[in-house]
Amino acid sequence: QVQLVESGGGLVQAGGSLRLSCAASGFTFGSYAMGWYRQAPGKERELVARFSSGGTTSYADSVRGRFTISRDNAKNTVYLQMNSLKPEDTAVYYCHYSAYWGQGTQVTVSS
Q1: CA angle, corner 24, sides to 59 and 78, nearest 5?
Q2: Does residue 97 contact residue 24 with C-beta atoms inside 8 Å?
Q3: Which of 74, 70, 79, 66 lies closest to 8, judged by CA?
Q4: Is the predicted pLDDT of residue 67 greater than 80, yes or no?
Q5: What's the N-to-C CA distance of the chain in angstroms?
Q6: Are 37 and 47 in contact (CB under 8 A)?
C-alpha cells in the first residue's frame, strides 16, 4: 500500500526557511517521478517542484532559485528546502507520486 507522509510545515516570517519532508512507502522508491504541489485558499493545486523518472528536476517559475527538491533513497524520503519564503508561498503543500497524494502540510508565511 502506497503511503506518503509529509512533515515540516509551520509558521515562518517572510525571508525565512523551512524544509518539508515526504516519507514514502509501498513502492520501489527512487525509480519513479515524484513531486511537491501546493494549494492556496481559493486557488487550484499547482506544481512546485518535481523529479522526473530519470532524476531531472523542474521547478515552478515562482519558486525557482529559492526552493530545492532533493531525495534520499536510503531513507525513502523526498525533501523540499524552501528559502527566502514569501507570504504568497502560504499554502498546503502536498507530496505526489503516481495517483497518490499525501495528507498535506500547512506552510504559513507572515509578512
Answers
A1: 30
A2: yes
A3: 79
A4: yes
A5: 40
A6: yes
* 48 Cβ contact partners less than 8 Å away, ≥ 6 residues apart: 35, 36, 37, 38, 59, 60, 63, 67, 80, 93
- With 0-12 CB in 10 A as exposed, 13-18 as middle and 19+ as buried, what is 82? buried
- Phi/psi-derived region of residue 98, left when phi > 0, alpha when psi is between -120 and 50, beta in every other case: left
> Number of C-alpha atoms within 13 angstroms, CB side, residue 30?
6
The tens digit of pLDDT for each residue in 5-40 reads: 999 999 999 999 999 999 999 887 767 899 999 999
Q: How far lies 55's CA from each of 34, 52, 69, in Å?
A: 9, 5, 11
**CA–CA separation, 82 vs 63, rounded Å?**
8
